[in-house]
Amino acid sequence: MTRWTNWAGTATASPQRVHKPRGLAEISEAVTDVAVDGRRVRALGSGHSFTPIAVADSDALSLVHWTGVASVDLEAKRVTVRSGTTLRELNAELDRLGLAMTNLGDIDAQTIAGAISTGTHGTGARFGGIATQIAALELVLADGTVVGCSADRRPELFHAARVGLGALGVISTVTLQCEPAYVLAAEERAEPLEGVLESFHDQADANDHFEFYWFPYGRDALVKRNNRQPAGTEPEPLSRTRQFVDYRIMENTAFGALCRIGRTVPKLVKPLGKFASSVLSAREYSDTSHRVFVTHRGVRFVESEFAIPRESLHDVFGELRALVPKLENPVAFPVEVRVAAGDDIWLSTAHGRDSAYIAIHQFVGMPYREYFAAFEKIASAAGGRPHWGKMHNLDASALRERYPHFDDFLKVRKEVDPSGVFTNDYLDRVLGPIT
């Protein structure tokens, strides 16, 4: 029996069997065997979800041998990639093809299937999450059959499966609508939080990709503005030395040391947070898009994130600021604020509305439950939708009220997996058991 744990250590499992298929036929065979024996199976991905969404007690499906680009249509700028491919591997291959993703989050360790299944997103008022870049999907259903879906072919399955939580089948390939490779100019600097909030909507609209980080107890926010450059622009990246010092030393080694001190001596968290906020360094550079989007995360944390209507950002963030000083335990990690365009994907957190995302974090090993529960209450009052891969306490009854197509999703789920081959305890909570 193999013990599995996710990146943050918030979910563990000891599946009785771990399947490692090397081809589509082997994926189908594994699923069929599980279904015939009345067992359940979950695809593991890379373990970067903070929830138990990938926990498999019976059978786990590892796609580490099912990776790489399956086909390319350069004229249409579409790439079909096997589901176990990590975003890091995908970005490297797209580089070689002269292509790029339209938008990305800041972590590239996830598999493409795991990223889309949980609704992974980046930031940008005119851009949707990664799932909005999907042109087609291929899935292995509970009976072992392989089906394709797109906007024109099995559209209801397509609406559901683009953010499907792994509840509909095993994604075997993803066809992505890409674009020509481009350069992003990055500007990152500390600015007074009050000014950032006052100009938030103008800044979000004026920049292609805009976000900020606020260190609780500090007066400043780290603001990041990333903007696309004209075709043919030569990148001007940070020097290797500057990258090493800023990202490896300051944002990981040094920050991790501050967090460990705060975990050991909690009364030091507040002054350390103020210090971290005050020493943020400014930098401007440009580079190939994915090298700007992605940031190395060497300090481990737990996270909760809610998508709220963009117009609710100031009210929700204001209540969060008022909450932090009242907590019994201090907060060692920053709050991240982003935006995304609305979309039509049934279980996307941005379904039907332009959204602001507020993500809260705590250093591993430090108390977080009071903080996360209080924030969930604040965000829920604004109709907040929790990120499917990040920590929350909501169940199907609460989530049904926040997703207009929730029952449509359940109908598709019932059709393609009537016996619950792909469910687990987490899905039974957030979607309800299959009846």
From TrEMBL:
Keywords: Ascorbate biosynthesis, Oxidoreductase
The organism's place on the tree of life at top rank: Bacteria
Protein name: FAD-linked oxidoreductase
PROSITE patterns recorded: FAD_PCMH, OX2_COVAL_FAD
Family: Belongs to the oxygen-dependent FAD-linked oxidoreductase family.
A Pfam family assignment: FAD_binding_4
InterPro entries: ALO_C, FAD-bd_PCMH, FAD-bd_PCMH-like_sf, FAD-bd_PCMH_sub1, FAD-bd_PCMH_sub2, FAD_lactone_oxidase-like, Oxid_FAD_bind_N, Oxy_OxRdtase_FAD_BS
Keyword Ribosomal protein set for record: no
Residues of the FAD-binding PCMH-type domain: 11-181
This protein's record includes keyword rRNA processing: no
Organism: Amycolatopsis magusensis
Pathway where it operates: Cofactor biosynthesis; L-ascorbate biosynthesis
Gene3D superfamilies cross-referenced by the UniProt entry: 3.30.465.10, 3.30.70.2520, Uridine Diphospho-n-acetylenolpyruvylglucosamine Reductase, domain 2 (3.30.43.10), Vanillyl-alcohol Oxidase, Chain A, domain 4 (1.10.45.10)
